[in-house]
């Protein structure tokens, strides 16, 4: 499959979202994250991540606007991963979320398969998570994400090179008496400073409450840093 | 304004902290270049190949040497021709179907891979030509006869499972199927695609 065909498929998927910015619940904010990846012994590796959310603007469906920077939450996660094949990895871990003084606990299980094509890489992530807190019902989610990385100069990503990374994710969540669907589209521009440090920025668009009917749209300005050790 | 300075200082510290790691790694970089930046001699060689499709030029930089590479598809196979920075032909690599290899060479290669791996799966095969411009040109033009030529080499990329680990390897064989070079392919990290 050539690059143009893949880009065309991605474009079709992108337009299928048809972002509507009127008449819906809308939230806009910042989503910075820092990832630390450590290579362990044998086939093991570890990922630590800190991700925070700040709201810059929100609008409810009744047209009430809220402006100004509001801190929302911070996630801390730690995952241990084991290589199970040439291009696949199984991981599991724990995340805790600090939100308005409350603590949420989340257990994560994921499998990632990376396809290396001539001029791009594709990563398929299958993930399930379970979230517990004293304030809300337990929620179980099943997620699939496809991510495409295209280096912008040459066939593989080298130090000192820009790249485009685009992800699309579908999430199905269920809690007691409730189930819902969320779609995410995340186009990012990244820069590979050296093999061990990458920085990305772009939009993280989320369309939630699809089954419920009262759609929620969230647009985050994402800034991601990735450090690799070992 | 103060925040902006802090941001730039943070970036400088972060990039500085990782610079120490570069020196320990093999430095190899491939970047796309315009045809006009490629050596004239190299462009003349490529122009002499009949029916060459769209040509993509790359510059490869490593600690030991720099080179130029022309990549194109011809007869539904990827061709990769490497030149020195002066335009001198280094080698030509062409995608090859496994069943086009001479049966005796195939058997010898298979025996080698079976002895090195508990289990293997071929991912890519290439034929490699070296020689004078005229020799390489004639081998590219007559791919049916090229596998019989004594100067050809074969490059196989395959998945190999051994000692409880699955890895990708690149083997270089001579025309008789004797191993010349073994390389384990180290993947670039994918943490930014996984998390």
Describe the structure.
The complex is a heterodimer of chains A (230) and B (195). Chain A has 230 residues and is mainly beta. Chain A has a single domain, classed as Lipocalin, CATH 2.40.128. Chain A is built from 1 helix and 11 strands. Chain A has one helix at 3-17, and strands at residues 25-39, 44-59, 65-83, 88-99, 102-116, 121-133, 139-151, 161-175, 178-194, 197-208, 216-229. Chain B is of the alpha+beta class and 195 residues long. Helix content of chain B is 31%, strand content 38%. Chain B has helices at residues 2-22, 40-47, 103-116, 133-141, 143-146, 191-194, and strands spanning 28-33, 56-62, 66-74, 77-84, 89-95, 119-129, 153-162, 165-173, 179-185. Chain B has a 9-stranded antiparallel β-sheet with strand order 1-2-3-4-5-6-7-8-9. The relative contact order of chain B is 0.11. The A-B interface holds A 35, 37, 43, 45, 47, 49, 79, 81, 85-87, 89, 91, 110, 112, 114, 116, 118, 121, 123, 125, 147, 149, 153-161, 165, 190, 193-198, 200, 224-228 and B 14-15, 18-19, 21-22, 25, 28-32, 58, 78, 159, 165-168, 187-195.
Taken together, the total number of domains of chain A comes to 1
- Number of helical segments of chain A? 1
Unreliable residue runs of chain A: none
Global morphology of chain B: globular
Unreliable segments of 5+ consecutive residues of chain B: 11-26
User: Level of helix content of chain B?
Assistant: 25-40%
Q: Give a quick account of the main beta sheet of chain A: strands, pairing sense, barrel closure.
A: 11 strands, mixed, barrel
**CATH architectural type of the largest domain in chain B:** Roll
The proportion of residues in beta strands of chain B is 35-45%
* Helix/strand class of chain A: mainly beta
Mean pLDDT of chain B: 84
The CATH architecture of chain A is Beta Barrel
Tally of discrete structural domains of chain B: 2
Mean pLDDT reading of chain A = 89
Query: What is the third-level CATH name, the topology of the largest domain in chain B?
Result: Nuclear Transport Factor 2, Chain: A
Sheet with most strands of chain B: 9 strands, antiparallel
Percent range for helical residues of chain A? under 10%
Shape of chain A: globular
């Amino acid at each position: 499959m050539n690059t143009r065909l893949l880009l065309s498929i991605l474009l079709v998927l992108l337009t299928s979202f048809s972002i509507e910015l009127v008449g819906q619940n809308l939230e806009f904010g910042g989503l910075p994250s820092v990832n630390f990846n450590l290579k362990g012994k044998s086939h093991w590796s570890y990922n630590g991540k800190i991700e925070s959310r700040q709201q810059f603007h929100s609008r409810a469906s009744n047209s009430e606007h809220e402006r100004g920077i509001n801190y929302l939450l911070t996630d801390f996660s730690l995952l241990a991963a084991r290589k199970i094949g040439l291009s696949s990895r199984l991981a599991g871990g724990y995340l805790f979320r600090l939100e308005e003084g409350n603590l949420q606990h989340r257990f994560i299980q994921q499998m990632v398969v990376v396809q290396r094509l001539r001029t791009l890489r594709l990563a398929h992530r299958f993930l399930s998570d379970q979230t517990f807190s004293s304030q809300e019902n337990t929620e179980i989610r099943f997620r699939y994400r496809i991510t495409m990385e295209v280096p912008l100069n040459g066939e593989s990503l080298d130090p000192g090179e820009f790249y485009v990374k685009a992800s699309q994710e579908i999430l199905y969540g269920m809690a007691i008496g409730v189930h819902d669907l969320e779609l995410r589209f995340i186009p990012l521009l990244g820069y590979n400073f050296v093999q061990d440090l990458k920085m990305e920025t772009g939009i993280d668009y989320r369309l939630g409450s699809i089954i419920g009917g009262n759609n929620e749209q969230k647009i985050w300005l994402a800034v991601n840093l990735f450090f690799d050790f070992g | 304004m103060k925040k902006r300075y802090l941001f730039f200082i943070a970036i400088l510290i972060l990039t500085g902290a990782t610079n120490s790691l570069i020196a320990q790694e093999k430095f190899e970089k491939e970047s796309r270049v315009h045809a006009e930046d490629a050596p004239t001699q190299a462009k003349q060689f490529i122009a002499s190949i009949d029916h060459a499709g769209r040509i993509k030029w790359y510059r490869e930089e490593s600690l030991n040497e720099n080179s130029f590479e022309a990549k194109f598809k011809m007869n539904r196979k990827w061709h990769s021709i490497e030149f020195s920075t002066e335009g001198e032909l280094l080698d030509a690599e062409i995608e090859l179907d496994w069943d086009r290899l001479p049966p005796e060479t195939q058997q010898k290669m298979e025996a080698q891979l079976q002895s090195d791996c508990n289990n293997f799966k071929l991912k890519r095969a290439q034929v490699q030509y070296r020689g004078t411009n005229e020799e390489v040109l004639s081998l590219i033009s007559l791919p049916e006869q090229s596998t019989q030529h004594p100067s050809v080499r074969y490059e196989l990329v395959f998945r190999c499972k051994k000692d409880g680990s699955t890895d990708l390897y690149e083997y270089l064989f001579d025309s008789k199927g004797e191993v010349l070079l073994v390389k384990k392919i180290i993947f670039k990290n994918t943490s930014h695609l996984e998390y």
